[in-house]
Specification:
Helix content: 40-55%
Number of domains: 2
Strand order of the largest sheet: 1-2-3-4
Shape: elongated
Largest sheet: 4 strands, antiparallel
Strand content: 15-25%
Order of helices and strands: HEHHEEEEHEEHH
Oligomer: single chain
Length: 169
Amino acid sequence: MTEAEDDITPAATSDWQPLPEAARRVSTLVGALGWLPFGAIPAVVGGAFIPGWPARIALGLACLALAAGIGAWHGRARWSRTAWRLDDRGLQVRRGLVWRSEVLVPRTRVQHLDLERGPIERRHGLATLVVHTAGTRLYALRQSGFLDADAVALRDALLPEADRHDDAL
């Protein structure tokens, strides 16, 4: 067992763990970028009714800034309302404020695990853990925002014992 795995044992994570600070930055950035198209629509429509290019450009920039600000706030709110824990039963992820969801993936239902790292996540040392479960063909728990070392340790901790030594003779 590696040092990273020792940090992610059921005894060590009995309480809910927040996502790291790097995930806040990524969530804020992705939220701001994701909302930019919502600012472009009113800028284009509103610009048709405003005479003069300087006023149209000012309206466009204001709409884009407002949309990016709303997206950044939304991304940060999602980050602050997401927590996880690993216990004897399995991995639990809790999200949301108004529509709260709590997902438990029992260790016995884990089929396989994937780690995904997009360019923004790699830049900040983060990874997305994808836990594929038994029972349904298309269901998987996808949680982004884990530190890379934590995602690897969670993946190793969630592997069924039989799968750890399947290549041994």
